[in-house]
Amino acid sequence: xxxxxxxxxxxxxxxxxxxxxxxxxxxxxxxxxxxxxxxxxxxxxxxxxxxxxxxxxxxxxxxxxxxxxxxxxxxxxxxxxxxxxxxxxxxxxxxxxxxxxxxxxxxxxxxxxxxxxxxxxxxxxxxxxxxxxxx
Length: 135
Hints:
Nuclear Transport Factor 2, Chain: A; about 15% helix; mainly beta; Cystatin-F; signal
């Protein structure tokens, strides 16, 4: 078990709690992280941005549920996320803020996708790479 210290955007593995040599967790290996973690939520939003930029849908999608999250410490934080995203009422051309976009209520316009995102965040240089975005 590696405790994570979480700040507004990022989580850092605590260096005071080094795993024993017999532990199955090693530095650089993915570890589970709470899906409500602020860093996880931010990484999921980056994945959604990538999806919205590459889709031909008239409406923006937004994350509805983060099903599973892992984090790996590799020259930054690499998040591996299983996320459900849903179509919102906001149209792409309006460039709406996703936080203010509500999910579609009309049955014929509702759509849900299951996605897998790998998002690599390097906090000290403010860089984000979306390595994988499959929906």
